[in-house]
Amino acid sequence: MELFLSALRWIFDPDHWQSGSISPLPIQDRFLEHLRYTGTSMAIAAVIALPLGFFIGHYGRGRQFVITFTGAMRALPTLGLLYFLLMVFGYWLSFDTAPLVGSTIAFVILAIPSMLAGAYSGLESVDRQTIDAARASGMTEWQILVRVEIPLALPLIVGGVRAAALQVIATVTIASYAGLGGLGRIITSGIGLNDYDRILGGALLVTALALVVDGLFALVQRVTATPGLSEHRPAAPRRTISRSPRPRTPKIA
Amino acid sequence: MKWTRENLDLIRELTFNHVQLSILPIVLSFVIALPLGWLANRNRVLRSVVITVGSLLYTIPSLPLFVILPLIIGTRVLDATNLVVALTIYGVAIMARSAADALASVDKTTIDASTAVGYSSTARFLRVELPLAGPVLLAGIRVVSVSTIALVSVGVIIGSQNLGYLFQNGKQRGILEEVIVGILISLLLALIFDLVIVLIGRLLMPWNQSDRGGPSKRIAVPGAESQLLAPSPGDT
Amino acid sequence: MTYSPRLGRIGAAVAVLGLASALAACSSDDPTAPSDEVASGETIVVGSFAFPESEILGEIYAQALEAADFDVETKFNIGPRQQTIPALQDGSINLIPEYNGNLLAFYNVDYTERTTEDVDAALVDAVAVDELQVLDSAAAEDKDAYVVTRATAEANGLTAIGDLSALEPFKLGANPQFGELGYGIPGLDSVYGVTDVEFVPIEDFGGPDTVKALVDDSVQVADIYTTSPAIVTDDLVVLEDPESMISSQNVVPLLSDAVYSDELADVLNAISAALTTEDLIALRDRVEGDEKASAATAAEDWLKDNGLL
User: Fold this and answer.
1) A180 contacts in C (CB within 8 Å)?
2) Distances from the Cα of A47 to the Cαs of A39, A54, A72, C61, in angstroms?
3) What is the pLDDT at residue C7?
4) Strand, helix or coil at C179?
5) Backbone phi and psi for residue C171, each to the nearest 5 degrees, phi listed first
6) Sequence-separated (6 or more) residues with CB below 8 Å from residue A75
7) How distant, in Å, are the alpha carbons of A53, A63, A221, A224, C53 from that of A131?
8) DSSP of A114-180, one letter per residue?
9) Which residue has the higher pLDDT, C12 or B234?
10) B83, C27: Cβ pair inside 8 Å?
């Protein structure tokens, strides 16, 4: 409808891609900012969540902790968390750095649950017999983890990272209210000016980014699937729901 | 604690509003997603359609959707309906896939057996498939519940009167306590809703309480396990 | 077959669900119920902008009207004018405390009126297109202002907005609307010839973030409203506006024609007659300063002190 066409025209207007324009333009600057925030926090979250998930998944301990923790983390209201961290860091840091530090921490906190769950469930889904065989043939625990479990679990691990990426992208959008840049700035300036072109244009840009990222991860998931091992084939029960389908993650932003 | 003591009425009112705004989308999501899930289960094409559309809706950022909705559905800008509709859309996007997967997970042999015993297709759906798909459906609803409650507070930016006000007002006036209270109550609500949903699950599906080992034991703690598994939005 | 226990369980589940739905449905605020059409004498829905001062003013209006036996609802914290005017247009709210200059600017970007009398007169016709009207304006004013730290002012000899050319290039922090307003970035250029400005949008309407940005020197100039307690507490300097780029900004009630009544006008005009700029500063200090009083309490106390409650 007309709204969409108008927004599309706004997006593709060359004026809006001019360097040096007044904030929130140009579009490419906001785009790059958005990617930068997402990438940085995903990297930090991965460093924390993946090793933890592997550890717990390999030894099978702390599963109750993982369940409770991920559940609680997902219940955190995004705006509240952002403002809280902003206020706390705003006390010590300057106007320029406080939003960045506070927001990045928020993104990391929101990305960890999905990555943790992905790593854990990925490892959990590996057929016990395979692991036993590996152990029997003399592999060390570390070798089993790195050479057997992780490769077999890759699609699920990547799935966790994929879900985290989507959540971070969505949260970065809201973070413009906490002083951050990114595509959200286009949306909030649109709301502030009652300019539907900007609101819808910004929304379309974020959606497009999310879909592209989602698609790329889906590809990676397919590519990393071990040939001959179907994702949905019931594994011999270790701690597994053989038929349990994959549920959704909560939308948090 | 001073601020909290002086503003109990405000907190109560905002929490009540927040609860109201959350319940309807959760219930509606389930009611709408169930038939969609059933449809998606019928053939591969429908399944692709339902899942793809669901994924697409899921990636729409919430704030612009809240703002644009009045234009699309003709409500007034401050109507709570905007929030409810948007949250229901997200809830359905999450739940439809869950419902499809839940119904797909019912053992084919059981379905065949029930047909053989003489159940009509409606009766079979209500008495066999639905109960067996129950635990996974429950897991899906729990995710929808957590998601909805957290998202409601974003609505404050378009003037919705809910717990999000505590975040915005707390920041504008520099009252950290107000923001913390808002977060804590949000978490508390999520927990309470989760417990209620689990309770309803236990009431409706008492057969999951048994101490049998193996896979069914997993299903007996609905949602906990499923919440772990990484979702794969969009993969068909 | 054990029907009874099963039915009992299902019944219990239905009861729980029913309770939940009843909770959702039975309240004054049913989200899906169609809203009442407001006719004269019906519910007054008072709105406010999304910053504390506006909420205080909204509370003042709401409490005074309630005391005068009106049916009052409040929908505070809506957003900037770009959200409140549509809310007035579609009937979501029907009364809001406004600022005459900026309100006129919203309807007529190139308005030339500057004094209170002129602006008020021009407003009558301007808002009539949306079937809205204004009542008496108050002496109380809250203006946008170009504000710098005392250090910046002294280092660069800044007393008026025009002096800012000595500071070029600099960063200016303000709400997003500032980039397009006649007294904002465009006005800075056209009226005072200051052009080398980097605009930094800050979402909090001259609130703590804006003040912090100024104090931290992340921006050298900020748009902070004249009633802000921070001007005193952080020793900030308000630059003079000799060209009257920023017009008067008196508090004025904006309402839809549908709810006008003489009784309503009496209540609101009495408030306007009593409200001064010093009052606004004091009220904001109570709510945003150390006391952190709620807007409702501060409003109530003001009404009582002025014999209006």
Assistant:
1) none
2) 12, 11, 21, 54
3) 62
4) helix
5) -105, 140
6) B146, B149, B150, B186, B187, B190, B191
7) 17, 19, 22, 19, 65
8) HHHHHHHHHHHTS-HHHHHHHHHTT--HHHIIIIIIHHHHHHHHHHHHHHHHHHHHHHHHHGGGGT-
9) C12
10) no
User: What is the model's pLDDT at position C30?
Assistant: 42
Residues C122, C247 contacting (CB under 8 angstroms): no
Chain B residues within 8 A of A252 when measuring between CB atoms: 147, 150-151
How far is residue C65's CA from residue C255's CA, in Å, rounded to a whole number? 13
- Whether the CB-CB separation of A114 and A52 falls below 8 Å is answered with no
Q: Model confidence over C95-113: pLDDT tens digits? A: 999 999 989 988 987 888 8
Nearest-angstrom CA–CA distance, C52 and C281:
12
Q: Which of B201, B235, B231 is nearest to B94 (CA)?
A: B231
Is residue A191 less than 8 Å (CB to CB) from chain B? yes
CB contact under 8 A, A67 and B228: yes
> What pLDDT does residue B107 have?
85
Give the span between the Cα atoms of A159 and A220, in whole angstroms: 9
Element containing residue B86 per DSSP (H, E): helix B80-104
Alpha-carbon torsion, ordered C101, C104, C109, C113, to 10 deg = -60
Question: Chain B partners of A173 at a C-beta cutoff of 8 Å?
Answer: 61, 63
CB C266: neighbour CB atoms within 10 A? 12
Rounded to whole angstroms, the Cα distance separating C107 from C127 reads 7
pLDDT (0 to 100) of residue C282: 94
Q: What is the ipTM of this complex?
A: 0.82
Closest of C144, C143, C141 to residue C278, by C-alpha? C141
Indicate if the pLDDT at residue B225 is higher than 60: no
pLDDT on residue A207: 92
DSSP single-letter state for residue C47: E
- A188 at C interface, C-beta within 8 A: yes
In the predicted model, is pLDDT for residue C28 greater than 50? no
A87 touches chain B (CB under 8 A): yes
Nearest to A193 among C176, C199, C208 (CB): C176
Position B51 confidence tier, pLDDT thresholds 50, 70, 90: confident
Q: A225, A73, A244: which is closest to A164 by C-alpha?
A: A73
Phi, psi of C256 (to 5 degrees): -85, 150
Give B145-184 pLDDT, tens digit per residue: 999 999 999 999 888 999 999 999 999 888 999 999 999 9
Count of positions (residues) in chain C:
309
Give the residue on B whose Cα is nearest the Cα of A244.
B105
Q: What percent of chain B has pLDDT over 70?
A: 88
